[in-house]
Design goal:
This protein is an alpha+beta fold. It has one domain: Outer membrane efflux proteins (OEP) (Up-down Bundle), CATH 1.20.1600. Helix content is 65%, strand content 13%. The protein has a four-stranded antiparallel sheet, with no helix packed on it.
Length: 439
């Protein structure tokens, strides 16, 4: 009996430990690791990188010898030659059934660099795919960190909205007392009820936004069930710091580096299309096994060298024209990417400073409106101001509080965007930027 109780206790403790482990909130660091493994965007970029790397391997070179084989059986109406004539005056054997096995080897040893250019093009595309994969990882890290920041923002907003509802309900109780004393009109009660309904509707909107954000985050983390707000470990918002990379050069940006590799690949492909008009030198070898219905196998081999000289190929001419235009298009796209990078970086930097100034001014406005609301609340109780004035100030105070929460979150997201744009974001930097810590 004691043994059964002891075993039951162990089972209970084990179950409790598993339950506690499952209920432990997911930290931002853990969420980033999960999203890097499960986010669709990152997985697609990884598959593209692996495909490009496979296409640029040594076996993709045209200078690697190729070996082919073929097997055939033929039955004909009239007998055919089984083996060729090998002696003067000797007639070769005939048979109406032929069995053939042919093994061929071909080795391209010189083509004026056409195959080498195509191999270098494949390597450039692999480099571009690798850069895009790293960029996709940074974008996934940024997306996950931004989701945590927005969840923190929405939770803080809901807390402010709940406090507003409680304050309005307390005001309503005071108004009821004043109404019973005949000091205010019934319309004031209707106004406060309208304000409460409006506040409760705002809470519903915030809860819906939280639910939608949690669903998106659950998908990125590869979870089968949707997360709850309590499943997310809260962030600690520190100072409002600005992220300004020290070495943000244009050519080091991931988007520009990838565009440069794609342009390089297009140039190499255009070069290869030019060299397709030049001669090619090949070595070849063939071994032919042939027999008839008697199954006496005849073995014959040949080796040689082949010099191919292209004279006219309309398809190659068209291909050359297409590759030239594609290389020009990639050049223009590279210029466009550089231009977009400069514009985006300037836009984000300006937004940083603007948001920082707005945070400072919003903090000042919050203090001013809190004091104004306190004075007007007292003034209204004494009958020296109207309820409309009081509710107007209360609404402004609520809007400013919500704006302050939004601005603090926006500054952190802007920092993350700049880190992705300049190619400097990783998990450690993302966590610090999300919490507002100096790097």
């Amino acid at each position: 009996m004691v043994r059964i109780t002891f075993i039951s206790l162990l089972v209970f403790l084990g179950f409790s430990a598993v339950t506690l482990a499952q209920e432990k909130p997911i930290s931002l660091a853990e969420a980033i690791d999960r999203s890097l493994e499960n986010a669709t965007h990152t997985r697609i970029a990884k598959a593209n990188k692996e495909a490009a790397e496979a296409g640029s391997g040594i076996l993709s070179s045209d200078y690697i010898p190729t070996i082919n084989s073929s097997f055939s059986y033929t039955r004909s109406q009239y007998p055919q030659i089984v083996t060729p004539i090998r002696a003067q005056g000797a007639f070769p054997p005939l048979d109406d059934q032929l069995y053939e096995a042919n093994i061929q080897a071909n080795w391209e040893i010189f083509d004026f660099g056409e195959s080498r250019a195509m191999r270098r093009k494949a390597k450039a595309l692999a480099d571009a795919a690798n850069i895009k994969y790293e960029l996709a990882r940074m974008e996934t890290i940024e997306s996950t960190a931004s989701a945590y920041i927005q969840l923190h923002q929405l939770k803080e907003l809901k807390k402010v909205q709940d406090e507003r509802i409680q304050t309005l309900k307390k005001d309503k109780e005071q108004l009821k007392a004043l109404y019973r004393e005949g000091r205010i009109a019934e319309v004031d009660l209707l106004k406060i009820d309208d304000a409460i309904v409006e506040a409760e509707t705002a809470v519903i909107t915030t809860e819906n936004n939280i639910d939608q954000l949690l669903q998106e985050l659950s998908d990125d983390l590869g979870l089968e069930h949707q997360l709850n707000p309590d499943d997310i470990a809260p962030l600690t918002f520190n100072e409002e710091v600005l992220f300004n990379p020290d070495h943000a050069t244009v050519d080091n940006a991931p988007s520009i580096s990838a565009a440069k590799e794609q342009k390089k690949a297009a140039d190499l492909e255009a070069r290869a299309s030019y060299r397709a008009f030049l001669p090619q030198l090949n070595l070849f070898a063939t071994e032919l096994l042939r027999t008839g219905s008697e199954f006496e196998i005849d073995d014959q081999w040949m080796v040689g060298i082949r010099f191919n000289i292209p004279l006219f190929a309309g398809k190659r001419i068209v291909n050359n024209q297409v590759k030239k235009k594609e290389a020009k298009s990639q050049q223009i796209q590279l210029e466009q990417t550089r231009q977009q990078y400069r514009q985006q970086l300037n836009k984000l930097t300006n937004a940083q400073f603007e948001t920082q100034k707005r945070i400072q001014s919003t903090k000042t406005r919050t203090k001013y409106l809190e004091e104004t609301y306190r004075i007007e609340s007292k003034s209204y109780t004494q009958g020296r101001s109207t309820l409309t004035d009081l509710l107007t100030t209360e609404s402004k105070l609520n809007s400013v509080r919500a704006e302050l929460i939004a601005m603090r979150a926006q500054l952190r997201i802007l920092n993350l965007n700049i880190a992705v744009l300049t190619g400097e974001l990783n998990k450690e930097i993302a966590i610090k930027l999300a919490e507002g810590k100096s790097l």
